[in-house]
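Hey, I'm writing a tutorial for new members on how sequence and structure tokens pair up, and I'd like a real worked example in the thread rather than a made-up one. If someone can provide the structure for the chain below, I'll link this post from the tutorial.
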Amino acid sequence: MELSDAEIILPYDYPRIKVVGSFEELVTTPFADGVNAMCWVRQLPGDFGEIVEKLAVGKGITSIDDARLLSLELSAAGRVARDVLLQDQERLRARELQPSLDCINEYLNEIEPELLRTDVQSWHVDSATVEADTYLCTYHGAYSEGLRNDEAMRRVDMPVARAELRQLYGEKDEEGFREFLHEHYLDLHYTPLPHATPFSFGRGNLWRIATEHPGCRVPPCIHRAPATLPGQPLRLLLIS
């Protein structure tokens, strides 16, 4: 039996995810009691594939502004999808956020060896110097993925990886080593444990996930971007 997007993505028995029923609930419910991810489950109308096709972007990540969206000649279904994209961004802007609509035609960054990976396709948490959350929605293409906090370990805390990084850094003081890890974002990346089972964010669902910042009351949400390979559908992503 084929499952819907909503049915395949949400591990309802996972206490760190809270499912909400509206945008207002998504943005106003505080992270507490270990919950570090909230999801407004949606089945969106419209043809987002048509929008991706009409955008005709080149390789890499292309940010799409409202003017470019409005310039597209679309069918009725395409216009419905465009309205959704504009409305979602307006919702976030009304909360003084800065959403970006990106069309992704393969990530072009060079993938580092596993020990040094800090790209978005590596398991990671987002960080901020002030209180801030990350909002994500995939409208077309492969979904983002999440990982339970108890099924992962910071890469820099794994003895073998830490020893190799320590050797790479050199025989210097521990405080300098910690600064080295922080400056290169190595302390934000994770390795799944052998029993880990990632979950998908799904298509059309708007997520709010916790970041690592001073005063955060819950663990940050571990996640990653999907691989974007040649020949796969382009990804249309809202991020803020």
